[in-house]
Amino acid sequence: MNFRDLEYLIALEELKHFRKAAEKCFVSQPTLSGQIRKLEDELGIQLMERSPRKVLFTPAGLDIVAKAKTILLEVKSLKEIAKSYNEPMQGTLHIGLIPTVAPYLLPLIVAVIKANFPDLSLYLYEKQTNLLLKQLEEGELDCLILALLPGMESFTQYHLYQEPLELAITDVHPWAKQPEIELNGLRGEHVLMLEDGHCLRDQTKGFCFAAGALEDGSFQATSLETLRHMISAENGMTLLPQLAIPVNRHEGGIQYIPFKNPKPTREISLLCRKNSVRKICFEQLAKLISTTVQAKLKEYG
């Protein structure tokens, strides 16, 4: 048995398909299938039921897959321990980001990170919160940058910045000339929102419902840019995070209006596993990101 065999087993359990698992592991299907057979022979137990159309893991197989994930995560930690002491800001770093943060934060920080930590290789993954948390738990990602939500206490958290949300409306809307607006001013209004799965949707719903606003159920957007296009086409109003809007608060037929205090905001944080050995790296990275973004947010006044 070797660690590579465990990787084959985990990939097969995830994908339930020999060809796809082989492709993910960059080996031929016969190679992967043969190693899985050898693993079963070595353990003296059947790990799965095979058929032409699907792979069904036995209870014993599922237990062994769970243990294999733990083993591989510990092996990765051993390698990271040595590197963290000698080269905390070198090597590869796999970072997950949510879709409502990545397109607006990355242009601000990637060049700055490379300038300050030239030996750090970044691999960036954009997915929704639940998928990112799962990948972080299983060791596929080193850290996440996302909106902090209740239930994330099992991870180490590094605060990055507090980001206000602003009202986006067409520039022909009666409110377009207002310099600020009360959140309660949305009472009775219908607000466009993102589709299920985006944490910003849940946060926006919370703010709007508390103010007496309603969701516009006729449409749910897949991205902030889709919401922006809907507003530009004079199809309602929405809330957008500040980094997603222009500093002058007017562009493409859309007016962005800040809220009066108390402003609706979201906390953007860097998360890592509590037992991660790369905390020196995360601390320095979080400090750099926070400083960079705070300077940008000051431009909004």
UniProtKB/TrEMBL annotation:
Keyword Calcium attributed: no
Organism: Psychromonas ingrahamii (strain DSM 17664 / CCUG 51855 / 37)
HTH lysR-type domain segment(s): 1-58
Organism phylogeny: Bacteria, Pseudomonadati, Pseudomonadota, Gammaproteobacteria, Alteromonadales
Keyword annotations of the record: Activator, DNA-binding, Transcription, Transcription regulation
Molecular function GO labels: DNA binding; DNA-binding transcription factor activity
Protein name per the record: Transcriptional regulator, substrate-binding, LysR family protein
CDD domains per UniProt: PBP2_OxyR
Protein family according to the UniProt entry: Belongs to the LysR transcriptional regulatory family.
Keyword check for Transcription: yes
Highest rank taxon of the organism: Bacteria
